[in-house]
Specification:
The complex is a heterodimer of chains A (145) and B (290).
Chain A (H helix, E strand, L loop, with lengths): L3 E6 L4 E7 L1 E6 L2 E6 L5 E5 L2 E7 L2 E7 L2 E5 L3 E6 L2 E3 L5 H21 L4 H20 L11
Parallel strand pairs in A: 1-9
Antiparallel strand pairs in A: 1-2, 3-4, 3-6, 5-8, 6-7, 7-10, 8-9
Helix pairs in contact in A: 1-2
Chain B lengths: L3 H57 L7 H4 L6 E7 L9 H18 L3 E7 L1 H11 L3 E5 L9 H16 L5 E9 L5 E9 L15 E3 L2 H75 L1
Parallel strand pairs in B: 1-2, 1-4, 2-3
Antiparallel strand pairs in B: 4-5
Classes of the chains: A alpha+beta (145), B alpha/beta (290).
Chain lengths: 145, 290
């Protein structure tokens, strides 16, 4: 089975540039698995886990927004912010959650009669919480207080 | 004619100045390396980003529904200038060159009857253009508390700029920064960031992409990021340029101090010799008189 070239870059550094056989991407419209020969696609990302599988080993990265460019031979992910799974500690996670909640509160006050941005912020929190649950981190309270 | 003691003091003072400039040069060299690494690290992101944006812009750009960030507001009446300089001086012509470029640019726009608004990033540039263009200032971003330049800093600036754009406060935004070429050369550069201009992808690359969600949505999502990315790479270039400029300025200063010490030392030795000769003459003529 042919391999994919996987590149993960954030504005501050290049996190990964490896060969892999399978990548799970947290797309904005839902997760998708990319293997070699995928149709060329550009998708935006939601905060979530990106999982690479190669020779039975998996590696996980946490990405927070950005987009992915998929071609038949490779995947380039341009993440606004990205971390290796191991760098994602409870502290970092709590910071992200509290940032998301702050944004939600701010939008709630600012856009009183416009549900758009408020819903977006709520979705961001939900995405973060889901991501935390997935990698076994505690979000403390999942309500939007 | 300065006395021996005066000369000695001068030499000591120039020596300690040389120590300081030498230390600053070495600090700048270390910081320069780090700044260059940071600039290097951001390059893959920027390149890929611009490539994808170019493609998107080429396919959506022509349509009437293209986002305003890409197609512009249809006017260029109100111009926003974002002048990015350093927080500190003692870096040769770095701040002055950027300020000068921004100043001539602004004056030309004003002469053309355009409305000019200026956002300054970094204290030094603000001070440099305050006297002539102070009335046009609308905002200032203080970077003095920033130890390590991150994408977040760029995002904050971009957010402020985009909020102004949404309020229709300006039509065109241009950033001013110094592009890093090498330690001795930095080019003051003006780059238009709103409306965004991307190099349209070359003919060879005509892959047809599927878009998820739609092209327009992706473009609307990515364009604000493009602004942040452009600002981020400008900030990084600026940081490298600043350290490079400081390094060569301090190198010059150290060398000048060395030359000065040599000169002063010669003068000091001459005066000392003159004093000794004088004393000898006095002793000898005193002995002869006996």
């Amino acid at each position: 089975m042919a391999n994919l070239q996987f590149d993960l870059v954030s504005p501050e550094r290049r996190l990964a540039s490896v060969e892999t056989s399978e990548v799970v991407i947290p797309g904005a419209d839902g997760d998708m698995t990319v293997m070699a020969g995928h149709a060329p696609t550009i998708t935006t990302l939601r905060p979530g886990i990106m999982r690479l599988t190669h020779d039975g080993t998996t590696e996980e990265y946490v990405v927070l927004g950005g987009f992915a460019e998929i071609s038949a031979t490779g995947v380039s992910v341009l993440a606004e912010q990205a971390l290796h799974r191991d760098e994602m500690t409870q502290e970092v996670y709590e910071k992200l959650i509290s940032d998301a909640k702050e944004l939600y509160k701010k939008h709630e006050e600012e856009f009183e009669n416009e549900p758009g941005p408020v819903d977006d912020a709520a979705k961001l929190i939900a995405d973060m919480v889901a991501m935390g649950t997935h990698i076994g981190l505690d979000s403390e309270q999942s309500n939007f207080g | 004619m300065p006395s021996l003691k005066d000369l000695k003091n001068r030499i000591e003072s120039v020596k300690s100045t040389r120590k300081i400039t030498k230390a600053m040069q070495m600090v700048a060299a270390a910081k320069l390396r780090r700044a260059q690494e940071a600039a290097e690290a951001s390059r893959p992101y920027t390149e890929r980003f611009n490539a994808v944006m170019g493609q998107l812009a080429a396919s959506v750009g022509g349509s009437e529904t293209a986002p305003k960030l890409l197609s512009g507001t249809g006017s260029d009446q109100v111009q926003l200038l974002i002048v990015m300089t350093a927080e500190r001086g003692l870096c040769g012509g770095f701040n002055g060159n950027i300020a000068k470029l921004a100043k001539t640019h602004a004056q030309k726009l004003i002469a053309d009857g355009k409305t000019v608004k200026i956002i300054t990033v970094g204290k030094k540039g603000r001070d440099a253009i305050k006297r002539e263009l102070g009335d046009y200032f609308v905002d200032h971003v203080d970077m003095s508390g920033v130890k390590r330049l991150g994408y977040l800093n760029a995002q904050d600036i971009a957010k402020g700029v985009l909020a102004r754009f949404d309020e229709n406060e300006f039509d065109v935004a241009t950033i001013f920064y110094a592009r890093f070429e090498n330690v001795v050369t930095q080019h003051p550069t003006a780059q238009q960031i709103i409306p965004s201009s991307f190099d349209v992808a070359e003919e060879a690359d005509t892959t047809l992409y599927d878009y998820e969600p739609s092209e327009e949505e992706i473009l609307a999502d990515l364009l604000p990021r493009g602004v942040a990315t452009a600002i981020f790479s400008a900030l990084l270039e600026n940081a490298a340029s600043e350290q490079g400029a400081r390094m060569s300025a301090m190198d010059n200063a150290t060398r000048n101090a060395g030359d000065m010490i040599d000169q002063l030392t010669i003068e000091f030795n001459r005066s000392r010799q003159a004093v000794i000769t004088n004393e000898l003459i006095e002793i000898i003529s005193g002995a002869e008189a006996l």
